[in-house]
């Protein structure tokens, strides 16, 4: 009995960071982490559906899409040597040479594992990479087949619209659509994806985007000032957007056959901090930067940096409509303001992810230098944070958290498809941190 391991005693959702260089990969090996490249100002991270690859993107200096090989049995990650380990603007680092890869902020892998899509802020583009489903290697098609940008990027990309400073990207479960959140365009862009080749194209006119005031030209929407991230529901019937400046989560109805999107009128189309938009009145939604959905399609969660909170929204699985539970049932914040349940490790939250089993929600907090853990009720979607150090891991153990590393200003977070690993992209650490998750 005395030899029972700590892992056997762990509660589902618990995070532990492997010791030494196994726990993170950084630009210079600082942390201490394994030595990598293309990771300066890392912002986003995604795992392939087969669990064999991890992809990260970096915003400044590196301007790269980074590839890691992942061991599905252990969650261990390693970056291939040379140009096989990354694709960057002009091939810097050294990486394979790519184009329209400036200030990368979001990354998504298609359900078939054949494509990787990246939002590129400074080039106003969404970039397409082909993925080898056997090896995980990535390559960018030449010329306009490799990207769509706001102005065509002088012929280097296909010409699109509603793509000024895109910051988030998502692929529909059927693999037929790609959606992009564009902060400066105040828009959500719809792209049609060829499920065989991965090629993307934007429908003409208002069918290609929805923006706050119809600019683009796009369909006219609301609650869409400064959209940051976007997610598609598992049933393919809804698209949800975290709108930073609107202090809102916007709801779009998706045609599961065509991928077309439309926004319900009035307060049924969004939930905002004070009901402006016009949206339904919510709380804990100040400057939301991240949005995620549970696999059962019953819950939407938003990470809100100004509220220092993660907000919980109940989704009607039939209609896609959103509603927020009253009071503390509707959010968890750093000090209980909102009004929300009282939590810790929630200063400046930005990224959010839900585990595949629906039992955990993870939130990255840039000012806390932490990843916070919430337990999720799989029946009703309610969230609560474990007390003390089991509720979060931070760079120095501050904030009543477990001590970790590679966690300076964490932004993006993802959970592996098997639910055994959590990965975090940390901006100031120039790193991807790895955690083992108790199943």
Map the helices and strands.
Elements: H1 6-9, E1 15-16, E2 24-26, E3 34-35, E4 42-47, E5 53-58, E6 64-70, E7 77-78, E8 86-89, E9 96-98, E10 104-109, E11 115-120, E12 125-131, E13 138-139, E14 147-149, E15 158-159, E16 166-171, E17 177-182, E18 187-193, E19 200-201, E20 209-211, E21 219-220, E22 227-232, E23 238-243, E24 248-254, E25 261-262, E26 270-272, E27 280-281, E28 288-293, E29 299-304, E30 309-315, E31 322-323, E32 331-333, E33 341-342, E34 349-354, E35 360-365, E36 370-376, E37 383-384, E38 392-394, E39 402-403, E40 410-415, E41 421-426, E42 431-437
Parallel strand pairs: 2-3, 8-9, 14-15, 20-21, 26-27, 32-33, 38-39
Antiparallel strand pairs: 1-42, 2-42, 4-5, 5-6, 6-7, 6-8, 10-11, 11-12, 12-13, 12-14, 16-17, 17-18, 18-19, 18-20, 22-23, 23-24, 24-25, 24-26, 28-29, 29-30, 30-31, 30-32, 34-35, 35-36, 36-37, 36-38, 40-41, 41-42
Task: Give a verbal description of the structure.
With 439 residues, this protein is an all-beta fold. Among the domains are: 99-220, no CATH class; 221-404, YVTN repeat-like/Quinoprotein amine dehydrogenase (Methylamine Dehydrogenase, Chain H). It is globular and about 55 Å long. The two termini are 21 Å apart. Mean pLDDT is 96; it is low at 1-8.
